[in-house]
Each structure stands twice: as structure tokens, then as C-alpha cells.
């Protein structure tokens, strides 16, 4: 078993899109440092999807932020392709977010002053990878074609989150990071959005790292892992 | 590049959704630039005119030699100096009348005139024409136009004299006529006399000294001492500049307030942009580009506004400068490239100042922290303390300027410190007042009212500060102007007692007229005045020009002439010829008091007089001494003896005036009765302060805009705060009324604070700035009715500014209030 | 015919220091002489009376150039010129006088050329010329003489960087050019009155930048007056005054026209004072080398031949940059020459 699994794992590690090793992070709380992550290891292959679970406050969002290069880790390493995220400067991390990652965060909203169409195109344009046909295909699949000229405030919650999904996928990222993307939606809407997210990621060839509380949703992804006590348990 | 472009368009898309905010920002910057550049255009215009007057033919740039005792000197001094190797050029200056206006006649000698770049002296054939015969009279194109004459005309300046054919010289100062020295001596009836020698080159080391050539008769005047107009009008322009700056600052307050709000409201956008991969560099570039673009647009609009302001105020300013200082301004506004640059520069600087703190904060916050709006608030939490600390610094600066500074600049600096300190400190009393209200309030709605107002204070404080500045300036300047008006009117009444004032065209005319008047029954007295000019040394190396007026002993003066302080038998000692009255401003300048003695340089030697009285002279900026007529005459053979005052019964005055004019025609150069003279003086006064009043009013308008802008931008942000109250059963009408009450409360409180501040300002203006600027001190009057006016004005301004946002609130669609809950996450 | 006339331009140049629009010829010297007196043939010059000013003529000048050496043998040149120009032949007193004056002074060494200019109106005492005793002055510059042949006087000029005072003596009489001082200039009637004192011995002091040295040497003085000395097409000239080591004095000039061949003329004065007129076919002036002076190309070395005198020499300037940078600039500088004869002199070139 170990003989078989070891090389398989190594192969997975080598071909991995995302490699997190020994990642640690603590916040400065009122009563001194508060460790949230204490050595997290994680690998994700290209096109693979992983559901990240754990109790509220266990550090799921923190892990995602670190992977996205939005915050600094205290220790450990994050490799995305060959880039070591923790060692990149701001410019490098911004480029990574633009070109390699897509983010769908619960609280990361749309730009209220841009139309749905412009919101959809925004990241692709920033990345210099705007492809009108691909954007239109996304809008079509996300059911947004008729809403392109509206402003976000004129959309329902589910529609808004679909725009966020489209925006994240428009530049054809290799890794989609999603933090409870359906947390604010009712079950039916949530399922619909998640379906689209998974389906379109597959079409785009993007790996997915998604935080969710719902075991039902988690079941639909390739793998599942749970954060507890600052470590990741498969 | 793509990244930068889309970052920029995403950021600017915010303004499309908040055009009101954009308008506030734009208007703030544009208004700041407009007021500043308007004032700058006026000042530039004036300065160019003075420079042209002084620098006409490059005269201003050279040091010169003048009669040590003032007045004219013999041409022999010129020849003697040239023959001794001194490169001097002769000048004769005087006044001529063309039509009903006076012009400065300048006689020059073109062959020896210093060659300076600004030297517009004719050469070649034009030189031969200028030398004549018949010679030429050079004149600025606009002066020629104003006279309604064409080139080649030879206008009459007195019975016997005509100017040589007029010829246009561009760049000549308006109001000036340049002729050959010989022609000037003939036209001014000063054969063989000169008023000045320009020093074209410094004498060589081995040249004989000035004294060894011509004795003590001439004195050297350095080039920078010469532009008298610039020196005299300096204070006037400093006043204007101070106003321009004040308006600029008020404009910046608006821009700063709108920028702050804009940054706060755009934080989510910035956060999103960062999260999806816009780099910090692209973001900063985009923010700076946006700022620059905005500054350029608003700057250009502001320049246009500034031009309009300047064009509108120019006639008033020109009239008051001419009335006060005899300075002629060019009537058409000319705009120098430097004006454009400085205006746009001020807009850019203004935008940078207004946006700097928001920009730095935005860029320095880490990405995730931006996500948490409380971090922004956190950073703002200590602002009250910081404001207070800055206020203390500003006030200390004001005190230091007052205690240790000298001159008018220090007066203004203390004023600026006071205003700024008070404005920065304003939130403190407001916050205290609201806390008190909160503690005292009973009902939940009342408690909420105060708590909510307290929370709104930071957002509104900048606009309130702008309002405070505008209101207190209004009170301060209002008190000064009103006080001045009263003093001035009273002074005019006392000073102008003669029924008729006239000026003879020449000495000969004067003799004929007085002889004729002495036979008239209805003329009670003919009081001749004689005038001379000299310079009184104040400190070694510097001297002040002074006009000396000689008047005969007469009841007209001893019973009526307004004095600030005087010895008991002042008029008797003046009649003795060894005493003088001195104007208040000159006494201050020379630090002279009652009983001081003064050496007056005269052509016949120094004249020692005792100061027996000090009188206010609000009509002139120049220093003045008044002495006995005969005493002055005997010491100044060259003194001007053309001005007369006539005493008669006031009913007969018109008849006498008509008779005089019928009898002597052009022999009477000017004649005016008491009422008309008073009217003219008052006019000049009103025009002087029309500029001030206009700027004052504009500043108030600007602060109303500030308040309006802040309220509008806050209104949108306030919907989430109001929604729960609405949900809890408070009607939209009541909510709107509460909003109105709060704005009125803020404005009222600000107006209350502005009264003591305005009075402090008035005191500073009356007791410090005016004394240093004009040399006179006005009585400090208080006008409580003005305060009421200002209070009402503040409330009105606030109510007007609040009207639109409140109307919108009262009519807000319930859906918008509901959306607060729907979107709550 | 008159050679010397060109010098008159300088007055007009300096006074009308931009090119006059309505003037004909060079610097207006070809203008109609309306109302002014014209030189007449057969007129006898009377001295000392004619040393003074002739205000009824439009232009007049008194001109002195000196070739000097100091005690170490170092060579210097000194120039002193007073021009008179009248706007009208008659006129008022004082400032109304139509007379105006311009003066130039210069000193030259092999390394330096310093010059100064000053201007004055006539009629008020800043400048003027009297005949007996002779005295021409402007500001603190002056030129005086006691004898009818202009001997026994001094000439002095003071400028910011230089000054000189030179005593002038001459045994020989004045040299009258042309027909007893009536100098024809062209077939169309232009002429001037013109005489020289080419024989001056000079002794005096010259200071440059405060350093004074004793100098001596030879000087040439000209006095000329006219009302219309140039024809309209004459644009400039080259003028030589040469002190031959053998004792004779030579004056030559070339007037350049833009229409016709150059006009050549001159005078030879023997050591005992006899004057002989030189004609155009007798004189050969040939530029040998051009050089850049004040931004213009000027002939610096010349071959000078006078067939009737068996004279064939080459001249070279003491300082090739002897340029008078006044209103319209001109070259005026000391030269030396060698060949069949050797000696020193002055070269003036205008209109380049
Ligand atoms: N900026 C911060 N400063 C201090 N502590 C923080 C900060 N951000 C997160 N924390 C703390 O770190 C811990 C992990 O937070 P995180 O947001 O990663 O949890 P989570 O697993 O995403 O929870 P949830 O399921 O509720 O979203 C929590 O205890 C939280 O209070
Ligand atoms: Mg979370």
C-alpha cells in the first residue's frame, strides 16, 4: 500500500497545481497572538476540485486569503505552479491573482458602478485576456445574457453571485478560489449557482478550492478536507 | 497599460453613479482656483501697469540722482556731471492736462538714455522724428484711444501750449506722455530745469565723487527705491491676495470633504480590484491620474471663472487705485502665460492637498483590512484629538506672529493662524454640545437624534469649518468696512468745509483768478494752498516721499480741520512758521509724536519744525505734512500754487462756479463744489471696498456650496441609518424634519462660534493690519445687527443646502429603504 | 574725388543705429542734402577757423589714430573720433539745436581691443568744437591744440577699462587733400572738404585695467566735413593710413559699390609735407587672407601696391579682432607692413 501510494502521491505532488506546505498563521488578538493555522499541508492537481470544511472560526477563509496572496503567512510555503506565493512581491501576487486565480468570495462584491457586462469582463480585461466569445458564452451559461446592461443593485443575490462566478472564470484561471459562494443564497439558488460553478470550471479546465459548511455540497467535489485545530485532515 | 486603463475606468465609474459628489469635488476645486486666479489676475494687471509706469523706457531699472531737497534742479548739474565722466541722462517730469484728465509728462534725452532691454526709445528715422522739429509725443495706444485722438494730432494742453504730434509707443504706461527733454521744459514752463538724472553706468573708480562735482545739491536714489506706486499700493494688493487665499482655502475645504467621502465610498471597489489582481502600482497610478485629470478640468473651469471675476472687478479696482494712489491701470485685462501656469498649478496643488490623506490611507492599508470598513473608522477615531492639537498649533502660530512679527504680513499671518485654529477647533465645542444634548435628552428619538448627529460630525465638519471661515470673515470684514464708512463720512464732513475747490491751469491764471475773485462781494474768503514734494529720511539710507501742503491761517482750518490730537495753540504755532501738522500714517511710519521735531529738506536748506498736531488722512496713502502757506512759499520757490479753496454762502456757490468758468474758461483747470467732492470721495471709498465685499460674498457662496455638497453626499450614505427608524415606525416626513433640525443645529452653533471669531478678526484688521497697511487706526465699532444678519444668513445657507437632500429623503421610495435589509449580509 | 568720405558714415551709423528705411546708400550717406551747404571748388580753407565745426554742413568728423609703443617695445593702437551730425542746417538753441555728436575711443594691443562710445546733443554744452584755440570735447573726452597746424595739444579719453592722455606735436604743415582741401567724390558732384595732419609725434600715458604705461609713437589726424559724401550704391570701404619708415605718409582707400567696379583713390605726402594725389589706375589693393571677426568674414592681410611710388607691401593687423562693436560695427585697428617699404598705420573696413 505504502509502496503504491507513495509514488502516486509524489506524482500528484509533482504535477500539482497548488502545493501548500507547513502553512502557519496567527492573528494578534486582544490577549496576544491567536494561532489559526498551525502547519497546513495541501495539494491540488490541475482541474481537481476540493471542498474545504471546518467549524466557523477554524481558519478556512484565512487559508484561502493566504493562497490568494491577500495576506502574509507566518510560516510555510504556498506554490502555485512553480511560483512560491509567499515570496512574491505585491506586483507578482497581483499578477498571480489576475492571471492564474479566480476568486468568488462571499463578501467580495461586484463593482456597483459598472454594468453586469463590465463586471463580467473586468478581471479578464485587467489580465489582458479579454475574450468576447468566452465572456458571452459564460453569460449565456450563467443566464445573464439579458442582464448585461443592468447594474448589480438591480440583480437578485443569486444573480449577483453568478456574475461573480463569471467574472472569476472570464480570464480562464487555472485555480478558482471560492469562499462559501452560496452561503447567502437559498438552497435551490445555491445549488444552481454551484452547479454552474463546477461545470464551467471543468469546461475552463480550472481547479476549484471551495470553502463550504454544507456536506451535501462538499460531496459534489472531487475531494474533501476538514480544517480543525489549525491543521488539515483529509 | 491595460491594467492601468481598466483600473482607471473602474474607479471613475464611481462618479457616474454619484454625479453630485463629483460636482461637489469639481466645484470645490474650480471655485478655489477661480477665486485665487481672479485675484491673481487683478494683482498681475495692477503690477504690470506699475512696472510699465516705473519701467517706462527703462527708467525704473536705473539708480538716479534727485535734488536733495526734492523738486527741480538746474540743468548745469547734468552738464557738469557728464563733463566729469558721470554717465547720467536728464529727466524732467510733470503733469499736464488733456481734456479733463491729468497725464504724466516725461521728458527724456534719447541719446544718453540708458540702453536697457525694456528701452522702447525710438531709433533711426524715428529718433530724428522724436527729436524734431516738431518732435513727437509718445503715448500708449489705449491712452490715445481714450483721448479719442489719432496719431499726428497735436492736442492743446494750455492756452499757449500744444503737444508735439502724438505717436503710438506700445508698452508705454497708460496715462503717460513721453517727449524730448527740450519739449518737456517748454511745455512744463521749466526752462533749464530737471527733476532727475538717471545713472546709466556706475562711475569708474577714478571718477570724481558726486560731491566734488556738484556739491550737496543732488542725492542718489537706488533703483528699487523708485517705483513709488508699487510701494504704496503693496498693502492694497496684499489685502486682495489674502482674500484670494482665504477663498482658496475655503474651496479646498470643499474639495477635501468630497474627496474624503469619495475615498471612503470607493473602498469596496478598491478592495474588489485588489482581490481580482489589480496591482498596487496600477491602482496608485490610476488614482493619481484621476486626480490630475480632475484638477486639470476643474482648474480650466476655475481659470475661466477667475477671468470673469477679474473682468467684473477690474473697473472698480482700477477706479479705486486711481482715486487712492493716482495709479493708472490698463482697462483691458491682459493674461500672462505665468498666470495660466500659476492657476493650473494652484488647482493641481489644491487637488493634491485635498486628496493626499485619503490617497495615502487607501494605498497603505493592506488588502484585507480594506475589506473591513471599521479599519478606516479606526484610523479616523482620533481625529478629534488630532484636530484639537493642530488647532492649538495654529493658534500658537497666530500668537507668535502677533507678538514677534512685524509689518502687515505678520498681521495677516496671525489672522490666518487664528482662522485656521478656530476652524480646526470647531468640532470640539460642537461635539461637547451634542454630548450634552445626548445626556439630557429624554425620549429615545431625541437620544438617537443627538447620538446620530455626533456620528455625523466628522463627515460634516469640513463643510462646517468652511462655513465658519466664511461667516467670521463676513463679520470681521463687515465690521471693519462699516466702521470705516462711519469714520470716513464723519471725517469728510469735518474736513470738507469750503464751498468750492478749484485748480488754476497756470500760475498766471491763478493770479488773474484771485484778483478777479477779490472784487466779488459774494466770496467770503479765497484760501490759496501751495504744495511741494520732498522725501523725509526715516532710517539711514531710506526715505519716504511726503507731500507738504501750505495753507493760510484761517478759521476754515482752525475751527474745522479734524485732528486726532494737537497742542492747545497748534494753529497759532503753525502760523508762526515753525510748526507742522502731520498725517497719522506718516507719523506712524516715522515714529513721530506730538512735540517731536522734524528736519524737512527744502531747496533753501533744511527746515526744522515741531509737530503740533496729528490728523487723520483717510484720503491718501502718501504721507502729508501741513504747514503755514507763507512759510512753505518762502522755502520752496518752485512750489505748486494752483489749488484754491473758496468760502462763500452755499447758495451762491453754483453761481460763482459758473461765473468763474465763464470768465476764465480753460484757465480754471478743475473746479468742484463741496457736495460733488464729498460724493467723489465716497465713490472712491465704495469702489475700494466693492472688491472686498464681492470677494466676501463669493466666499460665503462657496461655503454654502461646501455645505450643500457635504449634505448631498452624506444623504445617500445615511439611508442605512435611517431605515431601521423608518421600519420602527418613524415617518419619512418626521425623519426629514429631524434631518433639517440637525443641519440647522449645526449651522446655528457654527454661527454662534463665528461671532467671537469675527470680532477677533475685525480687531486684527482694524488695529493691526490696517495700521500696518494704510497707517491709520480706526475706532473699533461693534455692530450687533450684523451678527443677527450673519446668524440668519448661516441658517438660511444651511437650510438651502439641506433642502434638496431632505426633500429627496422625504420622498425616498420605500423600496430603497427596504433594499437596506434585502442587501444586508 | 574723395576717398575719405566713407568715414563720415560712422557718424550716421552711430546716430541712426538701425538701418534707416528711407535712407539711400550706406547708413543714409547718400541722402539728399536739402538745405545744407555743399563744398565748393576753389574755396580756400582758413586756419585756425576751419578746425572748428561747420554746422551748416550735415556731417563732420575729427579723427585721430595713433601707432604707439611702450618702454618695452610692445605695440599699441589708440583711436579717438568725434562725429557731428545735423538734422537741419539751421535751428534753435539749447535742446532745440539740430546738432548731435557721437564719439568713439579705442585702444588695441596684440591681445586686447577695448572700445567705448558716447553720445550727446549739441547746444547744451555736453559736447562741442571750437576753432581757436582748437578744442573738441564730449563728456570727459577731449582733443585740443595750440598751433594752427594742430601741434602742441593733447588728446584724451576715459572709458571703464582704459584711458589715455597723449601729447601731440608736429613740425610739418597740414596736408590738404584733393584741390586745396576740396575733395571731389564723383562725377555727379559729391564732394567734401578734407585735410589731415599725418605727421604727429605722440608721447603720453595709456592705462588698461588700471595698469598705466608710458607710450610714444606716430599719429594721423583727419578733419572732414560734407553734406552728401557718398553715392547711393556705395556700401562700404577699406581705408589705409600708412606711416612709411622712410618718412613719407600714405593714405589709400577702396570704395565698394554694388553696381560698379570699386573706386580707388589716395594721397601721398612726402616727408617735407608736399601732397600728391593718387589715381585709381595707380593703386592696387588685394586681400590676401580672410578671417572671422565678430561673426563676419573680413580681409585681414592685404597686398598694397602703388605703381608710381614703386611701393609693394603686405600688411598685417596688430590684432585681427580690432572690431568696434557699436551700433553698426566696423573694423578699425593698427597694422604693420613690410616689403619695398616698412612701417605702421591703421586699417578701417566697413560694410562687411
Ligand atoms: N483580521 C483578523 N484579526 C484578528 N483575528 C482574525 C482576523 N481575521 C480572522 N480572525 C480570527 O481568525 C480565526 C479564523 O477566522 P476565519 O475567518 O479564517 O474563519 P472561518 O473558518 O472562515 O470561519 P467562518 O466559517 O465563520 O467564515 C477566527 O477566530 C477569527 O476571529
Ligand atoms: Mg470564513
Radius of gyration of CA atoms of chain C, rounded to a whole number: 19 Å
Backbone shape of chain C:
globular
Strand order of the largest sheet of chain A: 6-7-8-3-9-10
Order of helices and strands of chain C: HEEEEEEEEEEEEEEEEEEEEEEE
β-strand percent of chain C reads over 45%
The structure class of chain C reads mainly beta
Which percent bin holds the helix content of chain A?
Answer: 25-40%
First-last Cα distance of chain A: 18 Å
**CATH superfamily caption of chain C:** AttH-like domain
- Rg estimate of chain A, integer Å: 18 Å
Distance between the termini of chain C: 23 Å
Structural class of chain A: alpha/beta
Shape of chain A: globular
Describe this structure in words.
- Chain A is of the alpha/beta class.
- Chain A has helices at 2-14, 60-67, 90-99, 116-126, 132-141, 157-169, 187-204, 215-218, and strands at 16-29, 32-45, 49-54, 75-80, 83-84, 101-105, 175-179, 207-211, 223-228, 231-233.
- Chain A has a single domain (6-233), classed as P-loop containing nucleotide triphosphate hydrolases (Rossmann fold, 3-Layer(aba) Sandwich), CATH 3.40.50.
- Helix content of chain A is 37%, strand content 28%.
- The two termini of chain A are 18 Å apart.
- In chain B, the strands form 3 sheets. In chain B, strands 11, 12, 13, 14, 15, 16, 17, 18, 19 and 20 form a 10-stranded mixed β-sheet that branches. Chain B has an 8-stranded mixed β-sheet with strand order 6-5-7-4-3-9-1-10. Chain B has a two-stranded antiparallel ribbon with strand order 2-8.
- With 352 residues, chain C is mostly beta strands.
- Chain C has one helix at residues 6-15, and strands spanning 59-70, 75-86, 99-108, 113-121, 127-130, 134-138, 141-145, 153-158, 162-169, 175-176, 182-184, 191-208, 211-226, 234-244, 249-257, 263-269, 275-278, 283-293, 296-306, 311-317, 323-324, 330-339, 343-349.
- The longest helix of chain C is centred in the N-terminal third of the chain and has 10 residues, at 6-15.
- The A-B interface holds A 65, 68, 70-71, 90-91, 94-99, 101, 103, 105-114, 118, 122-123, 125-128, 151, 153, 167-168, 184 and B 2-3, 6-7, 10, 13-14, 16-17, 268-269, 271-282, 366-368, 371, 819, 823, 825.
- Residues 27, 29, 36, 54, 56-62 of chain A line the site of adenosine-5'-triphosphate.
Amino acid at each position: 500500500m505504502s509502496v503504491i501510494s507513495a509514488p502516486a502521491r509524489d506524482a500528484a505532488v509533482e504535477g500539482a497545481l497548488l502545493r501548500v506546505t507547513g502553512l502557519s498563521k496567527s492573528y494578534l488578538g486582544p490577549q496576544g497572538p491567536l494561532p489559526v493555522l498551525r502547519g497546513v499541508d495541501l495539494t491540488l492537481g490541475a482541474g481537481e476540485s476540493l471542498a474545504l470544511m471546518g467549524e466557523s472560526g477554524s481558519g478556512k477563509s484565512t487559508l484561502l486569503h493566504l493562497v490568494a496572496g491577500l495576506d502574509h503567512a507566518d510560516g510555510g510555503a504556498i506554490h502555485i505552479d512553480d511560483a512560491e506565493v509567499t515570496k512574491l512581491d505585491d506586483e507578482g501576487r497581483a499578477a498571480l491573482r489576475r492571471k492564474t486565480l479566480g476568486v468568488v468570495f462571499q463578501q467580495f462584491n461586484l463593482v456597483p458602478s459598472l454594468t453586469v457586462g463590465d463586471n463580467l469582463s473586468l478581471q479578464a480585461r485587467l489580465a489582458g485576456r479579454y475574450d468576447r466569445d468566452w465572456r458571452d458564452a459564460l453569460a449565456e451559461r450563467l443566464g445573464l445574457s439579458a442582464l448585461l446592461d443592468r447594474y448589480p443593485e438591480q440583480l437578485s443575490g443569486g444573480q449577483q453571485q453568478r456574475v461573480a462566478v463569471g467574472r472569476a472564470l472570464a480570464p480562464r484561471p487555472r485555480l478558482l478560489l471560492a469562499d462559501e459562494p452560496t452561503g447567502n443564497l437559498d438552497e435551490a439558488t445555491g445549488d444552481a449557482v454551484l452547479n454552474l460553478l463546477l461545470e464551467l470550471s471543468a469546461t475552463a479546465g480550472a481547479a476549484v478550492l471551495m470553502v463550504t459548511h454544507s456536506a451535501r455540497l462538499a460531496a459534489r467535489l472531487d475531494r474533501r478536507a476538514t480544517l480543525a485545530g489549525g491543521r488539515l485532515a483529509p | 497599460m491595460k491594467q492601468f486603463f481598466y483600473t482607471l475606468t473602474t474607479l471613475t465609474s464611481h462618479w457616474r453613479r454619484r454625479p453630485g459628489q463629483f460636482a461637489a469635488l469639481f466645484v470645490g476645486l474650480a471655485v478655489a482656483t477661480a477665486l485665487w486666479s481672479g485675484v491673481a489676475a487683478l494683482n498681475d494687471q495692477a503690477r504690470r501697469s506699475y512696472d510699465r509706469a516705473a519701467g517706462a523706457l527703462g527708467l525704473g531699472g536705473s539708480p538716479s540722482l534727485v535734488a536733495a531737497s526734492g523738486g527741480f534742479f538746474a540743468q548745469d548739474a547734468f552738464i557738469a556731471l557728464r563733463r566729469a565722466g558721470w554717465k547720467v541722462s536728464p529727466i524732467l517730469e510733470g503733469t499736464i492736462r488733456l481734456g479733463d484728465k491729468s497725464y504724466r509728462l516725461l521728458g527724456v534725452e534719447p541719446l544718453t538714455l540708458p540702453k536697457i532691454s525694456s528701452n522702447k526709445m525710438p531709433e533711426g528715422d524715428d529718433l530724428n522724428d522724436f527729436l524734431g522739429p516738431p518732435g513727437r509725443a509718445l503715448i500708449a495706444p489705449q491712452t490715445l484711444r481714450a483721448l479719442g485722438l489719432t496719431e499726428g494730432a497735436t492736442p492743446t494742453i494750455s492756452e499757449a501750449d500744444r503737444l508735439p504730434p502724438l505717436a503710438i509707443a506700445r508698452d508705454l504706461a497708460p496715462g503717460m506722455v513721453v517727449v524730448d527733454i527740450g519739449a518737456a521744459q517748454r511745455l512744463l514752463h521749466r526752462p533749464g530745469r530737471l527733476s532727475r538724472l538717471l545713472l546709466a553706468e556706475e562711475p569708474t573708480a577714478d571718477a570724481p565723487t558726486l560731491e566734488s562735482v556738484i556739491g550737496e545739491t543732488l542725492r542718489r536714489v537706488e533703483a528699487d527705491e523708485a517705483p513709488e506706486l508699487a510701494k504704496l499700493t503693496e498693502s492694497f494688493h496684499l489685502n486682495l491676495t489674502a482674500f484670494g487665499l482665504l477663498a482658496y482655502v475655503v474651496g479646498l475645504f470643499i474639495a477635501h470633504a468630497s474627496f474624503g467621502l469619495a475615498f471612503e465610498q470607493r473602498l469596496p471597489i478598491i478592495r474588489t480590484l485588489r482581490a481580482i489582481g489589480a496591482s498596487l502600482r496600477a491602482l496608485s497610478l490610476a488614482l493619481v491620474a484621476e486626480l490630475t485629470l480632475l484638477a486639470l478640468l476643474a482648474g480650466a473651469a476655475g481659470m475661466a471663472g477667475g477671468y470673469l471675476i477679474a473682468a467684473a472687478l477690474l473697473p472698480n479696482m482700477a477706479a479705486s487705485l486711481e482715486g487712492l494712489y493716482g495709479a493708472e491701470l490698463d482697462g483691458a485685462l491682459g493674461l500672462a502665460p505665468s498666470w495660466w501656469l500659476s492657476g493650473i498649478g494652484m488647482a493641481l496643488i489644491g487637488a493634491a492637498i485635498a486628496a493626499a490623506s485619503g490617497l495615502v490611507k487607501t494605498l497603505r492599508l493592506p488588502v484585507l483590512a480594506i475589506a473591513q470598513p471599521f479599519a478606516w473608522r479606526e484610523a479616523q477615531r482620533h481625529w478629534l484629538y488630532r484636530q484639537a492639537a493642530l488647532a492649538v498649533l495654529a493658534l500658537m502660530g497666530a500668537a507668535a506672529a502677533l507678538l514677534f512679527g512685524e509689518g502687515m504680513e505678520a498681521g495677516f499671518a496671525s489672522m490666518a493662524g487664528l482662522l485656521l485654529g478656530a476652524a480646526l477647533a470647531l468640532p470640539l465645542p460642537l461635539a461637547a454640545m451634542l454630548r450634552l444634548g445626548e445626556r439630557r435628552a429624554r425620549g429615545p428619538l431625541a437620544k438617537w437624534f443627538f447620538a446620530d448627529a455626533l456620528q455625523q460630525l466628522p463627515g460634516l465638519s469640513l463643510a462646517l469649518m468652511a462655513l465658519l471661515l466664511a461667516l467670521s470673515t463676513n463679520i470681521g470684514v463687515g465690521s471693519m468696512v462699516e466702521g470705516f464708512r462711519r469714520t470716513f463720512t464723519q471725517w469728510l464732513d469735518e474736513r470738507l468745509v469750503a464751498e468750492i475747490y478749484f485748480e488754476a491751469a497756470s500760475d498766471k491764471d491763478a493770479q488773474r483768478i484771485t484778483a478777479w475773485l477779490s472784487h466779488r462781494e459774494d466770496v467770503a474768503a479765497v484760501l490759496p494752498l501751495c504744495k511741494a514734494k520732498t522725501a523725509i529720511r526715516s532710517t539711514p539710507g531710506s526715505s519716504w516721499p511726503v507731500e507738504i501742503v501750505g495753507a493760510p491761517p484761517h478759521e476754515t482750518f482752525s475751527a474745522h480741520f479734524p485732528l486726532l490730537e494737537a497742542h492747545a495753540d497748534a494753529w497759532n504755532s503753525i502760523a508762526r512758521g515753525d510748526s507742522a501738522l502731520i498725517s497719522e500714517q506718516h507719523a506712524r511710519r516715522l515714529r513721530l509724536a506730538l512735540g517731536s521735531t522734524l528736519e524737512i529738506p527744502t531747496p533753501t536748506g533744511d527746515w526744522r519744525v515741531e509737530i503740533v498736531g496729528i490728523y487723520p488722512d483717510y484720503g491718501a496713502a502718501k504721507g502729508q505734512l501741513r504747514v503755514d502757506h507763507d512759510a512753505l512759499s518762502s522755502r520752496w520757490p518752485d512750489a505748486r500754487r494752483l489749488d484754491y479753496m473758496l468760502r462763500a454762502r452755499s447758495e451762491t456757490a453754483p453761481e460763482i462756479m459758473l461765473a468763474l468758468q465763464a470768465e476764465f474758461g480753460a484757465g480754471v483747470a478743475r473746479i468742484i463744489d463741496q457736495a460733488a467732492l464729498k460724493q467723489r470721495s465716497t465713490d472712491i471709498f465704495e469702489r475700494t471696498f466693492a472688491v472686498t465685499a464681492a470677494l466676501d460674498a463669493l466666499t460665503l457662496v462657496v461655503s454654502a456650496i461646501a455645505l450643500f455638497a457635504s449634505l448631498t453626499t452624506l444623504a445617500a450614505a445615511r439611508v442605512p441609518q435611517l431605515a431601521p427608524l423608518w421600519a420602527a415606525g418613524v415617518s419619512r416626513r418626521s425623519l426629514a424634519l429631524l434631518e433639517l433640525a440637525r443641519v440647522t443645529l449645526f449651522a446655528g452653533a457654527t454661527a454662534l462660534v463665528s461671532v467671537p471669531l469675527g470680532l477677533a478678526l475685525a480687531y486684527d484688521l482694524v488695529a493691526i493690519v490696517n495700521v500696518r497697511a494704510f497707517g491709520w487706526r480706526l475706532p473699533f465699532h461693534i455692530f450687533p445687527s450684523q451678527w443677527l444678519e450673519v446668524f440668519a444668513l448661516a441658517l438660511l445657507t444651511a437650510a438651502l443646502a439641506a433642502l434638496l437632500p431632505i426633500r429627496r429623503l422625504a420622498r425616498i421610495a420605500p423600496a430603497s429603504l427596504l433594499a437596506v435589509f434585502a442587501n444586508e449580509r | 574725388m574723395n576717398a575719405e568720405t566713407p568715414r563720415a558714415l560712422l557718424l550716421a551709423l552711430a546716430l541712426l543705429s538701425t538701418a534707416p528705411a528711407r535712407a539711400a546708400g550706406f547708413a543714409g550717406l547718400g541722402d539728399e542734402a536739402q538745405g545744407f551747404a555743399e563744398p565748393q571748388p576753389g574755396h580756400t580753407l582758413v586756419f585756425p577757423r576751419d578746425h572748428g565745426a561747420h554746422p551748416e554742413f550735415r556731417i563732420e568728423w575729427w579723427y585721430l589714430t595713433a601707432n604707439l609703443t611702450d618702454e618695452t617695445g610692445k605695440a599699441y593702437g589708440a583711436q579717438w573720433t568725434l562725429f557731428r551730425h545735423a538734422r537741419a542746417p539751421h535751428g534753435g538753441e539749447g535742446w532745440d539745436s539740430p546738432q548731435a555728436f557721437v564719439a568713439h575711443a579705442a585702444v588695441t594691443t596684440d591681445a586686447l581691443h577695448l572700445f567705448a562710445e558716447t553720445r550727446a546733443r549739441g547746444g547744451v554744452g555736453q559736447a562741442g568744437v571750437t576753432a581757436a584755440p582748437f578744442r573738441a570735447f564730449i563728456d570727459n573726452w577731449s582733443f585740443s591744440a595750440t598751433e594752427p597746424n594742430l601741434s602742441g595739444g593733447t588728446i584724451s579719453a576715459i572709458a571703464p577699462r582704459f584711458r589715455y592722455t597723449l601729447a601731440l606735436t608736429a613740425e610739418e604743415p597740414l596736408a590738404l587733400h584733393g584741390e586745396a582741401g576740396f575733395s571731389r567724390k564723383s562725377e555727379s558732384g559729391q564732394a567734401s572738404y578734407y585735410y589731415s595732419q599725418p605727421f604727429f609725434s605722440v608721447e603720453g600715458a595709456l592705462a588698461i585695467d588700471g595698469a598705466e604705461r608710458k607710450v610714444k609713437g606716430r599719429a594721423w589726424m583727419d578733419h572732414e566735413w560734407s553734406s552728401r559724401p557718398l553715392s547711393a550704391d556705395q556700401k562700404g570701404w577699406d581705408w589705409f593710413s600708412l606711416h612709411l619708415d622712410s618718412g613719407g605718409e600714405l593714405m589709400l582707400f577702396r570704395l565698394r559699390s554694388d553696381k560698379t567696379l570699386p573706386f580707388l583713390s589716395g594721397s601721398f605726402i612726402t616727408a617735407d609735407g608736399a601732397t600728391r594725389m593718387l589715381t585709381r589706375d595707380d593703386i592696387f589693393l588685394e586681400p590676401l587672407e580672410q578671417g572671422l571677426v565678430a561673426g563676419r568674414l573680413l580681409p585681414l592681410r592685404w597686398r598694397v601696391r602703388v605703381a608710381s611710388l614703386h611701393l609693394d607691401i603686405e600688411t598685417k593687423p596688430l590684432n585681427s579682432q580690432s572690431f568696434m562693436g557699436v551700433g553698426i560695427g566696423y573694423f578699425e585697428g593698427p597694422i604693420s607692413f613690410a616689403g619695398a617699404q616698412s612701417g605702421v598705420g591703421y586699417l578701417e573696413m566697413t560694410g562687411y
